[in-house]
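Can't attach files on this board, so I'm pasting raw text. These are the components:
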Amino acid sequence: MALVRVISSDGAAFLVSQRLAKRSGKLKTEIETFRKSSDNSEAQPEIRIVTIRAEILRLVLQWLQQHQNDPVLPANQNEQDGRGDAEMGQSQWDRDFLAPMDLGIVMELILAANHLEVKGLLDITCKLVESKITGRTVDEIRTAFKLKSDFKGNEEEQTRLENRWCVEN
Amino acid sequence: MKYFALPSSSKEPSNDCSQLASKIDDLQKQLDEQSREIFDLRWELSNLKYSLNPEENGGIQNALLNDVVLRNLVFFLSKKDLRNCRLVCRKWNNAILPRFRKEFSFHFKQQYGWLLIYLLIYAVLLMPRVLIGSSKQ
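---
Top answer:
Structure tokens for the assembled complex are below.
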């Protein structure tokens, strides 16, 4: 079985099968680039992910392992469909996987899923964030996610006015 | 095991049902409040944990200011939440706007749409007369 070494930002190495690694768009590209540049076809690719630490990389690989037989969806599937796909694909395992995580880890997982182009994981983590947004007021959302309003002048008031004048199609 | 038995001699069963429904609503509200409190406590805990390691602290905020992440997140938001989320910050507003424009239209269209059509018809009918009048002069 062909293997690939994936190294995290803090130097931890994970040995995974190439079949599994190729489920990530980024890792697939890296493996293909390595194959083209390497003379030895038997050489084991080594991929360094400088933006993801070991704990998060382990979680991504764990998720990929669990979903290794799922169909791979294109990264822009949601934009094509105009809706999120997480509802369709979220299993009990996914819910148990995300349940013990605090929001800090979820945020890192979102960035990792985005960086490694793992659409399924990005979808379920986004769905989790959405569940924390639903039903909250603007101030509550800002407080919960530590976001600051950067509207200039009367931009915020204008947006409020637009909201008031809009109706659902 | 407990069973809820409806009294057979009850004269107003609909009243009992509405009482039960309001009780369920109250319990659901309590549950929602409690789960929100748990979420807030967890969030506080994660903030404290991350404040011990400030290098990793950036990840919490940055994920929700990342364009690709935001663009993906937008598809999961309900129409009701789209309005609120537009007001969070400029970045969120920019990310939400394309979907917002698809899902919403200005009230003006619905209320005054017919008036606009009448005005257009009137203008089209009036145009030849104006043109004829100006050519005669």
